From TrEMBL:
Catalytic activity, EC: 4.1.1.-
NCBIfam families: ubiX_pad
Ranges that cross the membrane: none
Keyword vocabulary terms for this entry: Flavoprotein, FMN, Lyase, Prenyltransferase, Transferase
Keyword Lyase belongs to the record: yes
UniProt source species: Leclercia adecarboxylata
Protein name in UniProt: Probable aromatic acid decarboxylase
Molecular-function annotations in GO: lyase activity; prenyltransferase activity
Length: 108
């Protein structure tokens, strides 16, 4: 089974992350791991009609962005990759500079 981490940041366009999860739901042999920033939760409610539960139900595994002990935070967690969609400039900057306080969003 291939593991793919889907991160949703607080940037505008939360529907893109939702749509990716919907598409991956129909892909055989892919296990999705969802992590959403706090800002993503707010953006989701402002921009879409989806509830947090609706989106979480699309993923196989859901991780709290603040849980630094989550399996996905370990370098030994084997994964096909991670997609952050949408990705805010703040999140991208944190990735580029290896600086973050959560699993998906820097300084949250």
């Amino acid at each position: 089974m291939k593991r793919l981490i889907v991160g949703i940041s607080g940037a505008s366009g939360a529907i893109y992350g939702v749509r990716l999860l919907q598409v991956l739901r129909d892909v055989a042999d892919v296990e999705t791991h969802l992590v959403m920033s706090q800002a993503a939760r707010q953006t989701l409610s402002l921009e879409t009609d989806y509830s947090l539960r609706d989106v979480q139900a699309l993923a196989d595994v859901v991780h709290d962005a603040r849980d630094i002990a989550a399996s996905i935070s370990s370098g030994s967690f084997k994964t096909t990759g991670m997609v952050i969609l949408p990705c805010s400039i703040k999140t991208l900057s944190g990735i580029v500079n290896s600086y973050t306080d959560t699993l998906v969003d820097p300084r949250r």
